[in-house]
């Protein structure tokens, strides 16, 4: 813009000079033009100085801008490098995180699948438990039982604390071996009488058969059954009875007579002395008239068993429908009459034995009671009572008595039930 202004002034000046030569009249004008030109020159000088000054300022400005741009360029380069590195690092981080996220996703998927499998197994286990809860309970109870028996093998005296548990459990043959071993370590020692009773009670209810078949245990086991019979429930005494008599199916066994007598002696004085289920168990287990009579014959001569022998004889007669023509029936009758005769009893009419004569008396006595005629040859009342109780007969009442010069005959009502316990000689 300034160059154009200078050119305009110069052109104007030239025109003025031209006009001055052609017209002298314009002298004043020329003077004005000179003055104007002078002013223009002065202005141009000022403008030139201003231009130079501004050019210098512009150069400085450009230089400053160049410096700033250089700095900005370096800053841009720096930030570019930083951003590039950061981008690389961030990209690497993002890549790794993506890989990890993918791995986590796969892990989560695997865990979810495993969780589903576990849930399925849990449901199967739950159903198995629900459907087999009794079997599982039995297995747990058996494991506990085995643990109890193992403890007794280490400390046999602890049976006093554990007896109740063992009586309620189902025990195995392996348990019998361990229990027998533990028992024999304390058997026969007076200071362990309580513990011995507990062992024998467990053996009676769970291992009667095994105990009789064990040569080292039999004699101890069959010694006095009564307290163990009295401690048993009816199902227990029936089971033990079947186990015991299952060992007597072979009448040739060396222990046949001793076991038979000891069992009936124990039964005679127990609360099951007249329990039909016990006698039924004996008959059904022997499962033979010959074997049943053989057991009865093993009791011959044992006057302590009058009551239980008669009840057992009744069962044999009724079960096998024996009559007076049967030789086994005759043998039973002959033994009973011989036993009564040795005791001074003249005649006996139990409800199951109507063939024995008893003149002047009435029938119709039921249950385990019978009518008895006894010749008291010199026996006192106390001697008579002891004799009867020892035979397993309870004197209920005296119905009639007659006295002659030589003897006194009494008629009694007697009971083959549970008599008072008397000590054995």
User: Which regions are unreliable across 5 or more consecutive residues at pLDDT < 50?
Assistant: 346-392, 395-407, 416-425
* Main sheet: strand order: 1-2-4-3
Shape: rod-shaped
Number of helices: 16
Give the biggest beta sheet. 4 strands, antiparallel
DSSP E strands, number: 4
End-to-end separation: 160 Å
SSE pattern: HHHHHHHHHHHHHHHEEHEE
Task: Give average pLDDT, whole number.
Answer: 75
Assembly state (oligomeric): single chain
Give the C-alpha Rg.
64 Å
The class by helix and strand makeup works out as: alpha+beta
Percent of residues in β-strands:
5-15%
Helix content: 55-70%
Descriptive overview:
- It is a single chain.
- The chain is α+β, with helices and mostly antiparallel strands and 425 residues long.
- Among the domains are: 125 residues; 81 residues, no CATH class.
- Helices cover 67% and strands 8% of the residues.
- A 4-stranded antiparallel sheet has the order 1-2-4-3.
- The termini are far apart.
- The C terminus is likely disordered.
Topology (elements, then pairings):
Elements: H1 2-22, H2 27-131, H3 133-154, H4 159-167, H5 173-184, H6 193-206, H7 208-213, H8 218-221, H9 226-230, H10 234-246, H11 256-268, H12 276-286, H13 289-298, H14 306-319, H15 327-342, E1 345-350, E2 369-376, H16 381-390, E3 394-403, E4 408-415
Antiparallel strand pairs: 1-2, 2-4, 3-4
Helix pairs in contact: 1-2, 3-5, 4-6, 5-6, 10-12, 13-14, 14-15
List keywords for this structure.
rod-shaped; four-stranded antiparallel β-sheet; alpha+beta
Summarize, please.
By secondary structure, the protein is of the alpha+beta class. It contains 16 helices and four strands.
């Amino acid at each position: 813009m300034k160059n154009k202004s200078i050119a305009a002034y110069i052109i104007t000046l030239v025109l003025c000079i031209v006009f001055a030569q052609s017209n002298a009249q314009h002298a004043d004008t020329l003077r004005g033009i000179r003055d104007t030109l002078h002013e223009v020159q002065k202005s141009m000088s000022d403008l030139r100085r201003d231009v130079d000054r501004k050019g210098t300022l512009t150069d400085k400005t450009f230089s400053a801008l160049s410096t700033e741009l250089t700095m900005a360029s370096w800053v841009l380069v720096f930030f570019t490098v930083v951003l590039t590195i950061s981008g690389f690092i961030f990209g690497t981080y993002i890549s790794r995180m993506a890989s990890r996220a993918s791995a986590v996703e796969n892990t989560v998927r695997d865990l979810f699948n495993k969780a589903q499998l576990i849930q399925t197994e849990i449901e199967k286990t739950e159903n198995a438990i629900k459907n087999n809860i009794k079997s599982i309970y039995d297995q747990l109870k058996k494991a506990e039982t085995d643990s109890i028996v193992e403890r007794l093998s280490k400390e046999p005296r602890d049976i006093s604390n554990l007896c109740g548990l063992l009586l309620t459990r189902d025990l195995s043959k392996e348990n019998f071996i361990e229990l027998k071993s533990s028992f024999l370590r304390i058997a026969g020692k007076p200071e362990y009488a309580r513990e011995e009773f507990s062992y024998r009670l467990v053996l009676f209810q769970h291992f009667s058969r095994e105990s009789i078949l064990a040569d080292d245990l039999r004699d101890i086991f069959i010694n006095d059954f009564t307290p163990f019979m009295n401690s048993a429930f009816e199902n227990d005494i029936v089971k033990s009875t079947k186990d015991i008599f299952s060992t007597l199916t072979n009448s040739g066994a060396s222990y046949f007579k001793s076991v038979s007598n000891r069992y009936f002696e124990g039964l005679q004085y127990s609360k099951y002395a007249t329990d039909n289920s016990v006698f039924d168990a004996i008959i059904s287990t022997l499962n033979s008239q010959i074997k049943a009579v053989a057991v009865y014959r093993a009791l011959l001569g044992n006057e302590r068993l009058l009551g239980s022998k008669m009840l057992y004889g009744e069962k044999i007669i009724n079960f096998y429908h024996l009559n007076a023509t049967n030789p086994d029936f005759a043998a039973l009758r002959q033994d009973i009459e011989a036993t009564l005769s040795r005791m001074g009893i003249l005649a006996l009419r139990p409800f199951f034995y109507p063939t024995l004569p008893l003149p002047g008396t009435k029938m119709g006595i039921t249950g385990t009671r019978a009518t008895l005629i006894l010749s008291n040859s010199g026996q006192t009342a106390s001697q008579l009572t002891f004799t009867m109780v020892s035979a397993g007969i309870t004197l209920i009442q005296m119905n009639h008595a007659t006295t002659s010069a030589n003897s006194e005959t009494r008629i009694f009502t007697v009971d083959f039930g549970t008599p008072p316990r008397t000590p054995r000689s």
